[in-house]
Amino acid sequence: MCGIVGINGSRPVSPLLVDGLRRLEYRGYDSAGIATLVGGQIDARRAEGKLDRLAEKLVGEPLSGTMGIGHTRWATHGKPTEANAHPHRTDKVAVVHNGIIENYRELRNELEKKGCVFASETDTETIAHLISDYLRQGMSPQEAAAISLKRLEGAFAVAIIFAGHEDLLIGARRGSPLALGYGDGEMFLGSDALALAPLTNRIAYLEEGDWVEVYKDKAIIHDAGDKIVERKIHITALSGAMIGKGQYRHFMLKEIFEQPAVIGDTLSTLVTPDDILTMPQMPFDWKTVPRVTIIGCGTASYAGLVGKYWFEQLARLPVEIDIASEFRYREAPMPAGGVTIVVSQSGETADTLAALNYAKSQGQKILAVVNVPQSSIARASDIVVPTLAGPEIGVASTKAYTTQLAVLLCLALDAAQTRGGITPQRSKEIIHALHQIPAQINAVLRDEHHVQELAHHISEARDVLYMGRGLLFPLAMEGALKLKEISYIHAEGYPAGEMKHGPIALIDENMPVVFLAPSDNLYEKTASNVQEVAARGGKVILISDKMGIANCGAKLFHSIAVPTADNAVLPLLYAVPIQLLAYYTAIAKGTDVDMPRNLAKSVTVE
Ligand code: F6R
C-alpha cells in the first residue's frame, strides 16, 4: 500500500519519478506527488486522484532538479485530498512514507507544543516535523534521521530529502518493503524492484530496521542499531517491458490470458514432462508432520482452502486454515513439528507476515508459496516454493491464484507420496491431468464470448450468489470476491449444502445464482440445489461440463461449459470462467477494472 520512489542522479528527475510511480500505482491511487531539490531548496507538486492528474499538473508547472522523491497514496490517515498527499515537507525536509505511524498523535502533540504548524491530517507529516526539529537542534541530516526513526512506532518505509544537501537521500524500512537500486552515477529507492525495472537491475533489499544514506555513487546501509552493514546485491530478471498491457485493454485481462503459460512455467519446476514429481527437498519430513496450518488473506486464503482439501484427501494430513488477520491474534496452540504454509502473491501482506512470525514463534517450519522471490515473506521462510506467475499488476488476483493452486496441489502430492497415502498410479494420473490444464484453459478462453453475453445480465443485478461443494466451494467464495471487488456488485460464496440453512431466503426472480457443479461425486447433491433455486424463480447460471449441463434437468438462465477433467484439478479450470465473468461484468458497468475504488494491490498495513 502506497508506493514510494527516490532518485539521486544527474538527469532531470521528475519524468523518472513519475515513470517509477506508474509502476507502483497498483499499490494505491488516491493521490500522488513528487518533491525535488532545486537550487538547494525543496519544491513539490502534488495532486488528488490518479497519477495522470499529477502528470498533467507537471506539464503546466514543471519541476526541475536531479534528486527527488515520489509517492502514490492509499489513504490511511486523512482524506485523499491534495493537502494530505505526499511528499510532506517543512522548509528543511520532504518525506514520502508507506505504512502507519502508530504514535503520531503523541509526537504531533509534542511538536505542536514546540510551535510546529501542521498542514495535513496525516501521520506522515509528523516525520517531517520531527526530523526538522532535530535539525534545528544542530544535528546533521544523518543524525536527525537516525534518532527520529527510533522514535517512530508502527510500520514504515520512507524516503527523505534535505534542503541544502544536494547529494543525500535517506531511506528506511521497518515493516514495509524498500529496495535499493544501484545505477551508474545514480542511485534509487523504490517500494519494489518493479518500480526501478527500467532504471537498474541491480537491487539490494533493506532488512527490517535498516536505514540507508543514498549518494549518487554509493550507499551506506545501517542496521537498526546504526551499525554499518552490507546487503547482497541481486540481479533481477525484471524488465520494464514485463509490466506493459500489450494488446490487452486491462492488466487483468492480460493476466487472465497469461494463465496457460504461467501455470506451465510453474509446473515445469515441480513435475517432469513424464508426470513425475520433482519437488525441492523439504526442511522437514512429511511423514512426521502432525498438522499443516495454511495462512493467507483474500484470494490467497481461498487458494489455501483448496489446498486444505487436497492435503486432507490425498495425503490424509490434517490441515488447519485461517485468514491471517484472525490467526495472528488468535493465540492458537500449534503442535511440535508442525508446518505452516504461507500463501501470498506479493509476499508483503502485513497480516500474513505477522501470522508467519507467530507460527515461527510456535516452533513451526515455514513453507512460503509466494510470487515475489525477494519479498519479506519469502525471506522470513524456511523454504520457498515459488509461483512463477510474473508480475501481477491488476488489483484483482488471477494468475497468482491459479499458480498458487498448481503449487499447492504438487505439495499435497509430495506429502501424499512421502506418507504413502496415494498409489503411484493415482499420483501420475493427477500430474497428467495438471499437464492438460494449460490447453484446457485455452479452450475456456476461446469461448469467452459466452461469458461476455452473461456478464451483461449480471451487471444489472444488485446481489449475486455463488455456490459450490468440495473443491469447488472455495472457488465460490473466490468468484464472489472477484465480482464484488471490481464490479461493486454485492456477492457471496456459499457451500451449496448450506443453502437451506439461510441463503435460500434471498432467492427471487432478481437473484442470479452461479453454481459451480462439475460431474463429480457431488454433482447430484448440487444438482438438487439447482432445482431448489430454479423452483423459487432464481436465475440459475450453471458452470459445468457438457454432461453436467445436459443432465441438470432444471430451467437454466445461462450455462457455461468447461472441459471435462480429473476431479482433483478442477479448481484450476473453473477459476477461469469466474474471473472472466467478474471482468466482463465490470466492463459492462464501466468501473475501473485495474484500479477499483478503495483497493490497493499490496496490503502492507494492517
Ligand atoms: C483479491 C486479491 C486480494 C489478495 C490479498 C492477499 O483479488 O487480490 O484478496 O489476494 O490481498 O494478497 P497477497 O497474495 O499479496 O498476500
Account of the 3D structure:
37% of the residues lie in helices and 22% in strands. The chain has 18 helices and 25 strands. The protein has an eight-stranded antiparallel sheet, covered by helices on one side. The chain has a seven-stranded antiparallel sheet with strand order 5-6-7-8-12-13-14. Strands 17-16-18-19-20 form a five-stranded parallel sheet, sandwiched between helices. β16 (292-296), α8 (298-315) and β17 form a beta-alpha-beta unit. The relative contact order is 0.09. The mean pLDDT is 94. Fructose -6-phosphate (F6R) binds at residues 297-300, 344-346, 349, 352, 396-397, 481, 485, 602-603.
What's the helix and strand layout?
Blueprint: E1 3-8, H1 14-24, E2 31-38, E3 41-48, H2 51-60, E4 67-73, E5 88-89, E6 93-101, H3 104-113, H4 124-136, H5 141-151, E7 154-162, E8 169-174, E9 179-182, E10 187-190, E11 202-205, E12 211-214, E13 219-222, E14 228-229, E15 233-235, H6 251-257, H7 259-268, E16 292-296, H8 298-315, E17 319-323, H9 324-330, E18 339-344, H10 350-361, E19 365-370, H11 376-380, E20 383-384, H12 399-419, H13 424-446, H14 448-458, E21 463-468, H15 473-487, E22 490-495, E23 512-516, H16 523-535, E24 539-544, H17 546-551, E25 558-561, H18 570-589
Parallel strand pairs: 16-17, 16-18, 18-19, 19-20, 21-22, 21-23, 23-24, 24-25
Antiparallel strand pairs: 1-4, 1-10, 2-3, 2-4, 5-6, 6-7, 7-8, 8-12, 9-10, 9-11, 11-15, 12-13, 13-14
Helix pairs in contact: 1-2, 3-4, 4-5, 7-12, 7-13, 8-12, 8-15, 9-10, 12-13, 13-18, 14-18, 15-18
Bound molecules: fructose -6-phosphate.
